[in-house]
Amino acid sequence: MTEAGHRPPHLAVVLVGSNAASETYVNAKIKACSAIGYESSLLHFPPEISQTMLLHTIDELNENEDIDGFIVQLPLPAHIDENSVINRVLPAKDVDGFHPINVGKMALGLDAFISATPGGIVELLRRYEIETSGKHCVVLGRSNIVGGPMSILMRRNTYPGNSTVTIAHSRTQNLKEVCLSADILIAAIGKPEFVTADMVKEGAVVVDVGINRIDADNEKGYKLVGDVAFDEVAEKCSYITPVPGGVGPMTIAYLLNNTMIAARKRM
Ligand code: GUN
After folding, report:
1. How far is the first Cα of the chain from the last one, in angstroms, to the nearest whole number?
2. Which of 169, 201, 219, 243 has the smallest CB count inside 10 Å?
């Protein structure tokens, strides 16, 4: 792009407040931009920023011709309505794929920005040539960011997809039996080491979306673990993603992929 006289893709990231995990994710996204030659901007606001001010910032990013795509890191402080924020982002710049237009198009199988975590997981399954057609895929968790879109993508009539999908969550009865019947288990419930070996079928493919901080006797005072008890489950399954280092980097890669798509569309 730059050889053809265009500027590189430009991603903007909006961060409100000082949630430690959000700061880590946002820094990783900005660092990834510079590693591959993208431009990036970090707009960091204090937690007291008003909703009106935040929406005004989004309007400016929507109109700014120098920015191809942007994200507002979630969660937001309690006084800000997340849906109002998500709805304000121009769908063409919504590289997080959170706007209802993008979610709706994705669900219909139309061209859309697919949100980065589910998009990255689908790409991971593709690159590792995991058989998904006709398989039972259990998605643990029903959030708008991961579980919801993940379940839609896995039942799409394409590869990766064509799975028989079950969405399990905190109210699911016989959760252990449901998980045990999964050929592909995607854990996104945000509970540290929730999935244990007795819940996993021999030879299953396990994707761990969790990033949980638990107390540890080290310099930081915490360590990161997934939603899956890695060591015991790894002995039983055929594939498993580590935490950290599995889904997290794929999420960032997919965000950059979406940003490239946004930039090309604007060329
Ligand atoms: N919070 C947790 N995951 C994400 C993400 O993928 N995008 C944004 N904007 N916020 C998040």
Report:
1. 9
2. 219
Residue whose CA lies nearest to ligand 1 atom number 9: 73
Mutate to test the pocket of ligand 1, among 24, 27, 29, 73 (most ligand atoms within 8 A of CB): 73
Q: Where are the domains of the chain?
A: 10-105+250-266, 116-246
From 68, 94, 96, 183, active-site residue: 96
Ligand 1 atom, smallest distance to 116 CA: 6
| pLDDT block averages, 10 residues each, the chain of length 267 | 94 97 96 98 98 98 98 98 98 98 97 98 98 98 97 97 97 97 98 98 98 95 96 98 96 98 94
Ligand 1: nearest atom to the Cα of 73:
9
Residues 61 and 88: their CA atoms lie apart, in Å, by 10
Identify the CATH assignment for 116-246 out of 1.10.10.410, 3.40.190.10, 3.40.640.10, 3.40.50.720. 3.40.50.720
In this structure, whether the domain defined by 10-105+250-266 belongs to CATH 2.40.110.10 is answered with: no
Q: Is the CB of 96 under 6 A from ligand 1?
A: yes
How far is the C-alpha of 31 from the C-alpha of 87, rounded, in Å?
27
C-alpha to C-alpha distance for 25 and 20, rounded to whole angstroms: 9
Our answer to whether residue 217 is catalytic in this structure is: no
Identity of residue 226: G
Q: Quick check: do 10-105+250-266 and 116-246 share a fold?
A: yes
DSSP state of 91: G
